[in-house]
Amino acid sequence: xxxxxxxxxxxxxxxxxxxxxxxxxxxxxxxxxxxxxxxxxxxxxxxxxxxxxxxxxxxxxxxxxxxxxxxxxxxxxxxxxxxxxxxxxxxxxxxxxxxxxxxxxxxxxxxxxxxxxxxxxxxxxxxxxxxxxxxxxxxxxxxxxxxxxxxxxxxxxxxxxxxxxxxxxxxxxxxxxxxxxxxxxxxx
Length: 188
Known about the structure:
By secondary structure, this protein is mainly α. The chain contains ten helices and no strands. Residues 179-188 have low confidence and may be disordered.
C-alpha cells in the first residue's frame, strides 16, 4: 500500500468514492482502520481513562501525538528513524497523489522529514499539539488539556509495544487479504 496514504489518512476527510487511485484509497482506508482499532483497544481506553473528565474529549488527540513521540523515542524498526523519515517524506512529496487526494500542495520533503524527526523532542510535540489546536474552532481547551501530555508518556511507553504488536497483527492480516497484484509496486 502506498506510504503516502499513512499521512493522507489524517488529511483526507469524507467518503472514499473512487475519485482517487485504488491503491491510494486502500491505503487511506487502512489508515482509518488502524485509527479505529487503536481507539477501541483496551490499552487506549485505559489511557483515555487517565484523563480528567473534561479532558477526555481531547484525550485521543493528545494520546495519538504522545504515541508518536514514544514511537520516535523507542523506534522499533530495522530501518533507522532517519531513513524512514526520508523515505516517508519522499512519498508525501509526490505532488500528484497529494493534490489529488487533498486539494493542497504537497509538503516539501526536507521539511516533512524534519517534522517527523521533531517528534523525538518534547518541543516538537508541543508544536504538533499547537498546530492541531489551530484546526479546531476553539483551540484553547485542547491546548489547556494537552499541557500535561508528559504525565502520560511513561504509561504510553510502557504499553506501546503491546499496542504496536496488536496493530501489527491487524496490519499483517490486512496485507494478507489484499490480492496479489492489486497494489502495484510503483504505488508503494
